[in-house]
Design a protein that fits this description.
This protein has 249 residues and is an alpha/beta fold. The protein contains eleven helices and eleven strands.
Length: 249
């Protein structure tokens, strides 16, 4: 039986899974996509659970298993799943893993509506690396079908989500694998002749410094969407220490 439950689908989730496997800690890892499962280590100590889960489904899992703790290593922008996980952990230790941020660069905004307003006051092509979940909002950019390219994960469900709101396949980039190197970012910027690169505040593990460097090399404007405030948690090194010191398991 697994000792802990980790909600992942991120670089940090993968690193924690690798850490558990190396240190012989039995862990269940919950991820949303097949890609999230593919990048996890193959180990007898790791049990992978794939699929989206609401609060009720998470609660059922917690009641069924006798976990010592739940570690929330989901994406910094995945507020809904974090809210569901935390609220389900009524009688179990909940630990939020916080992604370390990088120094922000370029134009910085608190919300997407401000970014869309800026784009509608400007001209030139745009490369959005916000992912498919934001594609509906991105359609509010004037002439989005001609001006905007989306970089998303190479899954049919993600591509379908974007085409259903009007993005042509020719404006959907799925090449490469995150986190993207500076070279990959440069290639994608040049592919769509972008004057603007929109990114989340994804930190070093999410490839933010490489996007900054690529924008500088290509001499284009970087636009950063700040992450939601999330100060109540621990960085990955502290979570690993807790596991090693047997304060959790």
């Amino acid at each position: 039986m697994s000792e802990i439950l980790i909600f992942g689908g991120t670089t940090e989730g993968r690193l924690l899974a690798e850490f558990c496997a190396e240190n012989e800690i039995f862990a269940d890892i919950s991820v949303t996509t097949d890609y999230g499962a593919e990048i996890l280590p193959k180990s007898k100590y790791i049990n992978i659970m794939t699929g989206r889960r609401n609060k009720e489904e998470i609660t059922k899992i917690l009641k069924k298993h006798q976990y010592t703790a739940v570690i929330d290593a989901t994406h910094p922008y995945a507020q809904e799943i974090s809210k569901n996980v935390k609220s389900a952990c009524t009688n179990i230790k909940y630990i939020r893993l916080i992604r370390q941020s990088s120094e922000l660069s370029g134009l910085i905004f608190d919300n997407l509506s401000e970014i869309i307003e800026l784009c509608n006051k400007s001209s030139g092509n745009i490369l959005s690396t916000l992912g498919s979940k934001e594609c509906h909002e991105i359609t509010k950019i004037n002439d989005f079908q001609e001006r905007v390219w989306l970089r998303i994960l190479p899954f049919n469900s993600e591509i379908q989500r974007c085409t259903e709101v009007g993005f042509p396949l020719s404006h959907i980039i799925t090449s490469g694998k995150p986190p993207y190197s500076t070279e990959w970012n440069i290639n994608h910027i040049r592919l769509c002749n972008a004057k603007f690169l929109i990114t989340k505040e994804s930190g070093a593990t999410g490839g933010y410094p490489e996007k900054v460097k690529a924008a500088e090399i290509c001499k284009i404007q970087l636009i950063t969407l700040k992450r939601p405030q999330d100060n109540d948690g621990l960085p990955i090194d502290e979570v690993k220490k807790l596991l090693l010191n047997e304060r959790i398991v």
